[in-house]
Design brief:
By secondary structure, the protein is of the alpha/beta class. The chain has 8 helices and 15 strands. The protein has helices at residues 40-47, 110-113, 117-129, 146-157, 172-178, 203-211, 262-273, 290-298, and strands at residues 2-6, 14-18, 28-38, 60-67, 80-84, 93-97, 101-103, 137-141, 161-165, 182-184, 194-199, 213-221, 247-250, 281-286, 305-309. The strands form 3 sheets. Strands 3, 4, 5, 6, 7, 14 and 15 form a 7-stranded mixed beta sheet that branches. A 6-stranded parallel beta sheet has the order 10-9-8-11-12-13, sandwiched between helices. It has a two-stranded antiparallel ribbon with strand order 1-2. Helix 4 links the parallel strand 8 (137-141) and strand 9 (161-165). Helix 3 packs across helix 4 (146-157). The protein starts with a strand and ends with a strand.
Length: 311
């Protein structure tokens, strides 16, 4: 099969090459890939040589099952699916555990659905950590990115008053259309305290976002797009009236290797297919244009998701 293979001698650190077909484990299905979506994190890891030479990277992909899992745990051959894994998506064939695979409506746009796994699941699972969000204020930093866009929409649908943080003035109307009640350039500009923060940025924005939490509030750190250290001033954690019982937690989507996300993936895919969730694709093309896509992503020239179609 053909795949995008890590080649650190190349300017893009990737090369289209012939590699052996993957051999599925008993609980894995073999999937012919239709489209993949790119995440900043995986592109950064490839670009900075954190991914081994000769490996096939990629987390998110849609495709069609060509061989069902030997243990009978997954969908039958011919089923359209959405898949998630720590590697192997940027290829014509992918072996993927059935526990991290959801089904896709037949008429759905595979490219749009491919944006769901990492970004959509992260947004969904972090919002669940906040508990009941109906009528509560939820702040999303980095709101114009992949995770941020899904989080804004899902939080608004759950009845939250969404405070979206984006430094790009062009994103104000976009984020308002997705459900944001308040769009600000920096967490320090929040008009009132918030119950929860989904932080995609870290750095000094994370400090300001923590400061915006009300009593009992939680900040969940998801990303670190700022590339800055997080330095809290003296007294930041002193509990006072209106500033007590606040917490910070970290998040990793696949922390539990036994995690079963098939129901969540299937639901999110159906919502995107029905137009109830906007995937926010801002770049799309054949996978032969991978260097162009990753350069735009790493250069912060994209607001939303990039999709490669496997020809």
């Amino acid at each position: 099969m053909r795949a995008l293979v890590v080649d650190h001698s190349s300017s893009s650190h990737l090369e289209l090459a012939e590699v052996p077909d993957p051999v599925p484990a008993p609980d894995e299905a073999l999937v012919r890939v239709e489209a993949v979506s790119l995440n900043y994190g995986e592109a950064f890891m490839v670009d900075t040589a954190q991914v081994p030479e000769g490996s096939v990277p990629g987390w998110d992909a849609t495709g069609v099952v060509v061989r069902a899992a030997a243990d009978g745990s997954g969908p039958a051959p011919g089923t359209r699916v959405i898949t998630l894994g720590l590697a192997g998506a940027w290829a014509e064939l992918r072996a993927v555990p059935t526990a991290t695979m959801g089904t896709v409506p037949e008429a759905a746009d595979g490219g749009a659905i491919s944006t769901v796994p990492v970004a959509g699941l992260t947004a969904l699972h972090v919002l669940r950590r906040f508990g009941q969000t109906l009528g509560r204020r939820i702040m999303i930093t980095g709101a114009s990115g992949g995770v941020g866009r899904f989080a804004v929409q899902l939080a608004a649908r759950a009845g939250a008053e969404v405070v979206a943080v984006s430094a790009d003035p062009a994103q104000v109307s976009v984020l308002e259309a997705l459900g944001a009640r308040e769009v600000i350039k920096h967490p320090a500009e929040a008009s009132r305290p918030v119950h929860g923060v989904l932080d995609n940025v870290e750095g000094e924005q994370m400090v300001a976002a923590f400061n915006a939490l009300g009593p009992g509030g939680t900040l969940v750190s998801v990303g670190h797009s700022a590339g800055q250290d997080v330095v809290f001033p003296v007294g930041a954690f002193v509990a006072t009236e209106g500033r007590h019982d606040r917490s910070i937690s970290t998040f990793f989507l696949l922390a539990d290797p036994r995690a079963d996300v098939r129901e969540d993936l299937t639901w999110l895919a159906a919502e995107v297919a029905a137009g109830r969730l906007d995937a926010g694709i801002t770049w799309r093309g054949d996978w032969s244009r991978h260097a162009e896509a990753t350069a735009a992503l790493l250069g912060r020239r994209l607001r939303g998701k990039a999709v490669l179609e496997i020809s």
